[in-house]
Amino acid sequence: MAERRNMQAKPAAQLQWLDIGAPGPRVLVPVPLLASWSGNLPPTDGRVIEAEFRWQADGSATDYDRACDVMSAAAAIPVGTGQAIVLYVEGDMPVAWAPLERGGILLAKLYTIEDPGLPEQLPEMPEVLPWEFLGEFTTDGSALRLMHAAEVGEEEPVFDTMDIPLMAGQYRMESATLRDPRMELWLVSLQPTEGRPE
Question: 45 lies in a domain?
Fold first, then answer.
């Protein structure tokens, strides 16, 4: 487990929350590859998907099934000619994106005790916060569509979606939990591997 110094969002950045209100994992798919994400439907492009989870017990495995197989905070999985990120979500947790000068942080709100609603900015983080390495994610710079993993990429979405900008490159994914008396947030950091201090 690594430790990283405090990371703050860009001063003018306001958190954009995607509050779907439905349980199940979320996924970030590069917009040009949406047609390669079949959601909770069997793939029609000849792919054979392997997954332990089955949304339909007597059906073929789907992209949604393999998203449900992810038990860590996040994981990069192949989609078409690239990669997508699956976010593990407990219940109907809302998810937000906090852009940093390099990369950014995905936040999922588990609960709020005192203040209703969703925070507008990235909360102040401890000087040192333990982060767990999850893997690496590579993108060509296309916008990433944040959506419920059951959505069929090339169809009109059932739930709200949100597009996230991320510069082309390879990113190190790490997770942490931020707790304070008011709320608990699950964090997934995406930091460029290039120029990262050893």
Answer: yes
Say if CB 123 and CB 180 are below 8 A apart. yes
Range of the domain at 55: 14-192
Closest by alpha carbon to 43, among 26, 57, 64?
Answer: 64
Q: What are the tens digits of pLDDT across the range 60-102? A: 899 999 999 999 999 999 999 999 999 998 888 899 999 988 8
With respect to residue 62, please indicate whether it lies within any of the assigned structural domains.
yes
Low-confidence ranges of the chain (pLDDT < 70): 1-13, 111-116, 195-198
Q: Is 61 helix (H, G, I), strand (E, B) or coil?
A: coil
**pTM for the structure as a whole:** 0.89
Q: Tell me how many domains the chain contains.
A: 1
C-beta atoms surrounding 117 within 10 Å: 8
**Does 38 reside within a domain?**
yes
